[in-house]
Design goal:
By secondary structure, the chain is mostly beta strands. It folds into two domains: about 20-225, Jelly Rolls (Sandwich), CATH 2.60.120.200; about 235-350, no CATH class. It contains one helix and 29 strands. The strands form seven sheets. Strands 1, 3, 8, 9, 10, 15 and 18 form a seven-stranded antiparallel β-sheet that branches. Strands 2-12-4-5-6-7-11 form a seven-stranded antiparallel β-sheet, with no helix packed on it. A six-stranded antiparallel β-sheet has the order 19-27-21-22-23-24. The longest helix is centred in the last third of the chain and has 4 residues, at about 320. It is elongated.
Length: about 350
């Protein structure tokens, strides 16, 4: 999944509620490859995160380790500490900064803000991590041949054609590791500025740390990810999902579909087509010359919903919900009500043209 373009926000410093987050598991992450280099000395990363599991390496942000020369990765380690590793010629020639605190509450949202500024004269000020608005103590592990990141160093992170990852880290050879199992919300990457927690949050009435809208600029490669459904889908939409063999709702279509065409992606099985004109349980197969099949209740589709559709147990027709299968569904919105003409001896059903 690619990171979208920056979305600029102009409501200056007002407290507000984060409406949505992004759920990630061990098989999902986001990536972006900048077309040009940004500021490699100074940047700020801010996110809200809630982990679902503990005891494994889970990345927040990092670049692709392609040359072992100046890579960075920020993650929760197997001891549930926050850790920031900077490489300079391989893992044995880098610096690891680890939090003294241990984070083990899977029910809590944490605001984590990381600041790099290699222009600082004091070595301990060049990489900072804040949790819920407070600067945390970091213990340095010095690997062979390296100390803190040198003054005015320009790591590869934020370079042109250097892939940036959220919720994972790509090691040499291309393998993805350190996948986050949990939620991200309100992700900001600010290219070229060393900011403070006050740019992203404030202390509430009861001492809690709560978000505010960031009102500044993003720089060359900066981005903002609110994870909101702030788009309108018209006419056609595609969704993919995993079959369970039990009734489940499939959302994210963007409208209530009038026609759903489903197909397993992992097996050579029949297509399944259902529409609102003939009825949700009357199924056609595009790869067959057979007439429509009136499936029994509880199998195939069972309903067209506001933002998607519901599939049943799928005991007979595997196109829609076979257990463990990977399924794609192409969905059409016919643009309004269907019309029935009852004049004469033949009833003519007319479908409204798809909106363009």
């Amino acid at each position: 999944m690619a990171i979208g373009s920056p979305q600029w926000m102009y409501n200056s410093g007002e407290a507000y509620e984060i409406e949505q987050g992004l759920k990630l598991d061990a098989d999902s992450y986001l990536s972006k490859t900048p077309s040009s280099s940004g500021n490699r000395k100074t940047w700020t990363f801010s996110t809200w995160v809630k982990r679902s599991t503990l005891g494994s390496n889970q990345a927040l942000i990092g670049d692709r380790e392609s040359s072992d020369n100046g890579e960075s990765v920020i993650f929760f380690n197997t001891s549930n500490q926050l850790e920031w590793i900077w490489f300079n010629g391989g893992y044995s020639h880098g610096t690891s900064l680890k939090s003294n605190a241990i984070y083990r509450d899977t029910s809590a949202w944490l605001h984590i803000m990381c600041v790099q500024d290699t222009t600082q004269g004091t070595d301990t000020n060049r990489q900072k991590i804040y949790v819920n608005g407070s600067l945390i103590s970091l213990t340095k592990t010095q690997h062979a041949g390296s100390g803190y990141i040198p003054q005015n160093e320009q790591p590869d992170f934020n370079s042109a054609d250097e892939e940036i990852h959220l919720a994972a880290w790509r090691r040499t050879g291309g393998e993805i590791e350190y996948e986050l199992d949990g939620y991200l919300a309100e992700v900001n990457f600010i290219d070229g500025q060393a900011l403070t927690p006050a740019d992203f949050g404030e202390t509430g009435t009861y001492g809690e740390w709560k978000p505010i809208e960031y009102s500044g600029t993003y720089g060359t490669n900066g981005f903002y990810l609110p994870f909101k459904q702030d788009y309108t889908v018209e006419g056609f939409s595609t969704v993919t999902y995993k079959g369970t063999g039990a009734s489940q709702y499939i959302g994210g279509v963007g409208f209530s579909p009038d026609l759903v065409w489903a197909k397993r992606r992992d097996a050579a099985t029949s297509h399944g087509i259902a529409d609102s004109v003939r009825g949700v349980r009357n199924i056609l197969s595009s790869n067959s010359t057979a007439a429509e099949y009136a499936e029994s209740a509880g199998n195939t589709l069972t309903a067209f919903n506001t933002d998607g559709f519901t599939v049943g147990a799928d005991g007979n027709y595997t196109a829609f919900n076979a257990s463990g299968s990977s399924i794609v569904a192409w969905c059409w919105d016919m643009g309004g009500s269907n019309a029935t003409n009852t004049t004469g001896d033949i009833i003519l059903v007319m479908e409204v043209q798809i909106k363009q």
